[in-house]
Amino acid sequence: xxxxxxxxxAAEERYRLLLEEASTLLRNFDTAAPEDxxxxxxxxxxxxxxxxxxxxxxxxxxxxxxFPAGSDDGDALGRFRATREEATRRIVEMDSLVIALAxxxxxxxxxxxxxxxxxxxALHGYERSGREQHHKFNDTV
Length: 141
Prior knowledge:
The chain is an all-alpha fold and 141 residues long. Helices cover 79% and strands 0% of the residues.
């Protein structure tokens, strides 16, 4: 294997892991605890950091004489770019779904908080109106 092949294999593996993390986040969105989200984000950031390092290595390699279009390395680089583009598209789609679900959940929570606030206001109004009867036990009991 050439250096380029090794780099591309590592990059494809990282994109596969990132895609897997995005899928896991979407699949577990409704059941994951906040700590789980934090762990997922840390893992994803680590994978993204690895991908950025790999991109730097690819940029360094690209400064060398270019790979001929019909060469094995040139073909491998073309396949990798297509794979990277497809993986990125799928990750963005899944993340967009997660964002939509999160916005929906926030909307529901805001409605529930608003309803609780209205209920509390109504209760305070009822208590101040004097209609509430206080039941006190006899101190001698």
